Amino acid sequence: MRIVSFNAAGTEIVCALGLRESLVGRSHECDFPADIDQLPRLSSTNIDPTLSSAEIDLAVKALLAARRPLYRIDREALASLSPDVVIAQSQCEVCAVTGSDVEHSLRELSLGAKVVVLNPVCLSDIWNDIRAVALACGVPERGEVLIAELESRMRRVGDRVTASTARHRTIAIVEWIEPLMSAGNWMPELVTLAGAEEVFGVAGRHSPYREWGDLLTADPDIVVVSPCGFDLARAKQELPPFVEHPDFTRLRAAADGQVFVADGNSFFHRPGPRIAEAVEILGEIVAPLSVAPLYEGRGWERVCATTRGDRTGS
Length: 314
Known about the structure:
Blueprint lengths: L2 E3 L2 H9 L6 E4 L16 E3 L7 H13 L5 E3 L1 H7 L3 E5 L9 H10 L5 E5 L4 H14 L3 H25 L4 E8 L4 E2 L4 H7 L2 E3 L13 H7 L3 E4 L6 H6 L2 H4 L8 H4 L3 E4 L1 H5 L6 H12 L13 E3 L12
Parallel strand pairs: 1-2, 1-5, 5-6, 7-9, 7-10, 10-11
Antiparallel strand pairs: 3-4, 7-8, 11-12
Helix pairs in contact: 5-6, 6-13
């Protein structure tokens, strides 16, 4: 079997199912496992990834308004691979190559590959996407085993947090900095699994824009800045407009040293097997004395120490 994935989460699902050797092509965003970079890249973006958060937002809106594509598919390379199964997504036209673009390309190339279009908006959808990929690839039983393993890992985090914390803590997940967005889709469910409560998001609904007044009114115990599509280093690079905002120090989380930055690209906003790691990261943040800090420094960092006194960088 020859599998092509135009979706980073789909690529990780294929590999978690034990089918890495069947992958023959990937999108430009597929970066895990590490050896995936050896495979041909079948897509590219029309957005300069070095732009700031605000500039990326404006560039995306300009392309959409002009009805220009955000991504390009290398049809010649796709045809040369002659895949049996192609994985794409329809959850977000901004985030990755869409299923409709992939299906159009396959028709134009007269390729009869089976197309699996992922469309996760909540946690159960992620499980169903794993099942769909496993079924299309002929290993449905592996999908059920993988789901059971991930659910077990996430339950263990919640059990440890619940047993160790006397008070239910509230969290705001910031999915984009300029303009400000809170996290929706499956993120509120991940926070709940980590033994806390997300103050904004509604499971199954897309991530909404927010005003700083919304954040001040909610005044959560913890703020996690986890920009979609940015790894930890890039998220830290984008932090200044957030931490230097005039209202930042008015947040209880800032005063208590409970503002964190996290790798949203690898964990939080990639609806694949590593969402279990996102729950584990949240557990480390919510209950650091009971959940071992396995991801600190590579998956998340504290933004600053308490502002009730001297502020120091992390």
